[in-house]
Inverse folding.
């Protein structure tokens, strides 16, 4: 339908941005444009059509940006832990040793070279401990990468040496190359025995400073705790004195109450004795009254 429309309307296919005039014939539309009164050719302004990128391209660009961001995140930071790096290298070396011993029963020279090359890093790991600031040693990441290549070369030589005896020469060559690369890296980066001992002394000096500061803080804390302990002891003595004073007052009060009770008992006994005497007197008086009356009646008759 589009081709038929193009043929019937002078070749317009919808891409030039110019729609044909339906009142003009096709042969007239193919003619050259008319000239103006000034002798200039009047041209229709061309319109640029802005096309949006398809959704698939945008998705691909987004994937590329995400992949670049993930790659940046996956790159090791400058402050990566040296202890983990060296420990991973040591684990790889131990695995290579185990495979070599299980395969041939004799430790190849490649693994021996890798072990001797890793010895300075083991010393460095033991000195620095589990955490190390790599910003103070900018050469260390490069040295670790060199040693990792050394170990992989040695392990590759061990794996190739498992097949036949002719491959042992390749393992020896790889070991020699690895040892030479390690020595060159150490000498080039200034990490020889003297450099390692200097670094060890610097690390030990830093550790000593940290321990001194921690010791000062601990002593200050001990002084504060001793002061608090003295205050608590004083408060305890005051409470004990108050308690002893309260106990003495209570004992004294008990003694006073017992004395008052004994006095009250004595007074009650004396009152009971007087009451009994009065009862006897009253009873005797009541018995004497009828006798006296009889005597009075008898005396006038006589």
């Amino acid at each position: 339908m589009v081709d038929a429309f193009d043929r019937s309307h002078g070749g317009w296919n919808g891409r030039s941005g110019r729609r044909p005039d339906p009142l003009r014939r096709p042969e007239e539309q193919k003619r050259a444009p008319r000239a103006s009164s000034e002798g200039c050719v009047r041209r229709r302004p061309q319109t640029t059509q802005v096309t949006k990128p398809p959704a698939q391209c945008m998705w691909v660009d987004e994937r590329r940006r995400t992949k670049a961001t993930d790659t940046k995140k996956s790159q090791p930071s400058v402050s990566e832990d040296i202890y983990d790096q060296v420990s991973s290298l040591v684990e790889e070396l131990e695995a290579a040793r185990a495979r070599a011993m299980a395969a041939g029963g004799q430790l190849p020279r490649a693994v021996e070279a890798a072990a001797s090359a890793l010895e300075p890093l083991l010393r460095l790991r033991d000195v620095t401990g589990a955490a190390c600031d790599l910003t103070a040693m900018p050469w260390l990441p490069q040295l670790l990468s060199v040693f990792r290549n050394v170990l992989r070369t040695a392990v590759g030589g061990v794996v190739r040496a498992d097949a036949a005896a002719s491959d042992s020469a390749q393992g020896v060559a790889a070991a020699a190359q690895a040892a030479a690369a390690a020595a060159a890296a150490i000498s080039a980066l200034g990490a020889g025995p003297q450099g390692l001992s200097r670094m060890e002394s610097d690390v030990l000096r830093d550790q000593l400073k940290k321990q001194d500061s921690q010791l000062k803080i601990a002593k200050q804390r001990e002084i504060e705790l001793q002061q608090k302990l003295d205050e608590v002891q004083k408060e305890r003595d005051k409470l004990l004195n108050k308690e002893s004073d309260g106990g003495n007052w209570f004992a004294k009060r008990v003694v006073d109450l017992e004395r008052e009770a004994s006095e009250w008992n004595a007074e009650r006994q004396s009152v009971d004795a007087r009451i009994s005497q009065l009862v006897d007197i009253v009873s005797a008086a009541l018995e004497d009254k009828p006798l006296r009356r009889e005597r009075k009646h008898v005396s006038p008759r006589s």
Remarks:
- The helical segments are 2-8, 26-29, 55-74, 82-103, 109-128, 140-161, 168-189, 193-301.
